[in-house]
Write a structure and sequence with these properties.
4 copies of one chain form a homotetramer. Chain A is an all-alpha fold. Chain A is built from 10 helices and no strands. Chain A has helices at 11-36, 43-49, 54-60, 64-75, 78-88, 94-110, 116-124, 129-156, 165-183, 198-213. The longest helix of chain A has 28 residues, at 129-156. The structure holds a DNA duplex.
Chain lengths: 214, 214, 214, 214
Amino acid sequence: MSSTPSPVPDAPRRTRRKEARPGELLDAALALFVEKGFAATRVEEVAARAGVSKGTLFLYFPSKEELFKAVVHENAGRHVADAFREMAGFTGSSAELLREFVRRWWTQYGGTPAAGLTKLMVSEAANFPELAQYYQDEVVGPSHELLRRVVQRGIDSGEFRPVDVPPLVHLIIAPLVQMVTWRYSLAPCCPSAQQIDPVALLELHAEMMVRGLK
Amino acid sequence: MSSTPSPVPDAPRRTRRKEARPGELLDAALALFVEKGFAATRVEEVAARAGVSKGTLFLYFPSKEELFKAVVHENAGRHVADAFREMAGFTGSSAELLREFVRRWWTQYGGTPAAGLTKLMVSEAANFPELAQYYQDEVVGPSHELLRRVVQRGIDSGEFRPVDVPPLVHLIIAPLVQMVTWRYSLAPCCPSAQQIDPVALLELHAEMMVRGLK
Amino acid sequence: MSSTPSPVPDAPRRTRRKEARPGELLDAALALFVEKGFAATRVEEVAARAGVSKGTLFLYFPSKEELFKAVVHENAGRHVADAFREMAGFTGSSAELLREFVRRWWTQYGGTPAAGLTKLMVSEAANFPELAQYYQDEVVGPSHELLRRVVQRGIDSGEFRPVDVPPLVHLIIAPLVQMVTWRYSLAPCCPSAQQIDPVALLELHAEMMVRGLK
Amino acid sequence: MSSTPSPVPDAPRRTRRKEARPGELLDAALALFVEKGFAATRVEEVAARAGVSKGTLFLYFPSKEELFKAVVHENAGRHVADAFREMAGFTGSSAELLREFVRRWWTQYGGTPAAGLTKLMVSEAANFPELAQYYQDEVVGPSHELLRRVVQRGIDSGEFRPVDVPPLVHLIIAPLVQMVTWRYSLAPCCPSAQQIDPVALLELHAEMMVRGLK
DNA sequence: TATGAATGAGACTTCATTCAT
DNA sequence: TATGAATGAAGTCTCATTCAT
């Protein structure tokens, strides 16, 4: 532990650790809040999972509620902004753009630990209304906006038939959200439930949407 | 929303209503557990909403956990069995059968307070694994089985193109589950979010599925 | 239950039962208080053991404390007064009087359920100081007074050597009290403990006292 | 009696005394359990008497029951083992050995706060059967065994007349147990009762036993 | 900065007591 | 008089938060 073979003083490592603390705590908190919910998670567990003591957690976050808010802020929004940027320069067909969106959603968000945030917001929205609003504004709203543009692009180009766009966007998003919600709630408890390959499911989903829009 | 906080406005104290109490308590518990989660709901709140005192609740349910279990048992499974029965005798086209399933799902479940159970299970599955398994066995499994039959019926008759049925069933169910999950989580907190008419959304969903299956 | 084969109306039986109620409740309460202590005994148990409902108990005793006091009053004192009377007319030797006292103590008190009162007072004296004082005045004091007279009689007649009477009385009483305390506390839990025949023990006790006094 | 309610009069709040806490809590618990019984003692009282808060008690003992068990384990058995050791090397007459046993019993146990354990076990044996058995095995059994040897030694050497040893052992022990039981139950409530000097009483007891055994 | 012992508000649960029937 | 459903004060235990070290 305290024996450093390298002659370099341990200051840099300590500094790095010190700066890494909040991130480690946020990761631990995300995982535990997702798994057990906000109320059923004890701060001591979060601290232990991050490898620090209970008191240390409170040096970085003034309360359990603030820790929760930081978890949401840390994990929300980033991916949507990225997606916006990357979708903007797309030059292929709208069908292909839709397929690309679904694929990217999985690799950048749905398949990562950050996806647990979705279930977390579902569970705790009523107890943290201002966070729910924030999540709505930063994640849900922009995501829908992005998809509205994708669909409108297809309609405008004549590739898709004219449809009522907002409801359709809900239908595109629902299976994505549902998939991650499922993965972090019932799925871990139910070995009996048949496991569906996420990628295959998403491929089929994109296919169904494209066919339904022709 | 505007549901009566107390069953009778001018009810006297200490009325004896042994028969009605369990049901009133279960209704109150469902609403509060759905809204705030199991841990964040106090038994005293449940009792108050049912119009009784804290102690009375424990006359009917030996613990908060048992109350929770009773809430799930009370609200799970009933509707699925009904749906099975009514779908069995259907004689129209499979496209119409699919549309009928979606419509019935809304009138019999999605639009009723029992739909809150869906969000409740998402939130509490990890804390009540045995209940999650029960819910999987009694509700999720049978629902998927029912839909598998509906789709297979269409494929067998040549009305639907051949598809991998299990993933498709997930795609049919996802928007339904997502809708109620949404209604009991983010929606109440976000007036800014555009409200989508459920019936219109479900009509479009059925339409997209049918088109995607031709 | 309600079918009475006898043509006699059930009024007399009811009347008899009504008058017997307090006694049945007191018996039940004595047994349970002795077994589990005052605080750990629930009034509902007492009522159930007496064959009535919880509410009925409160028709006869205004509170659990008053029930306890009634139990003590009911069982205290009676035996001592009897003993006084019977000892008064004794004409044999003082050694024989001492033996007779010990024998009578067992048949009239130590071997009856009322003996549980001894353990009860030991356990609850601090929580019911005025009852402890009452018990001291009605039972302990008179018992010691009685024995003091017995011993003094022997000394006066020259049958016993001169001793300090009050401490000796304690020594005569201790094994009696200890025996019943034991029977209602550790003995029921410890089958491993060798069972001593009470009568033999008391015979030996009287013998030791008499020998020690010669 | 005049024992310090708080360990240090001007002790600051929130002192960290991890080592000393369990012992202080056990002492406080012994005193209160003896005085009021297990059920009637509130954990908050125990904590207050030990000079800590309610929550601190649960840092050291996981429940009130475990605290009780720890109190018994802490105070049981120690003295018996000591007595065995010291009696083993005795070289005087058996009469003197008996007197020495009684004296030692008082200085090492009967006159110390640990003597309250005797009354505690009498009161709570039925509610903690496994502890009663433990107490029987660790304290009562060995004590009787020790005294059996003492008496048998006297009989073997011809100093005592032959008697049935087990009942006699009960007679030797009864006044000792009775004395401490008394001191922690009725005595504190009854100033009217004549106070007997314990040492004088025990001297007389030993004398009576020795005389009765000649 | 980091620790973890200490705190005390708050939640579940029990049960003596009340009261409508 | 008898019942037992209903009540609510009180007790055990948890855990977010504080603070001496």
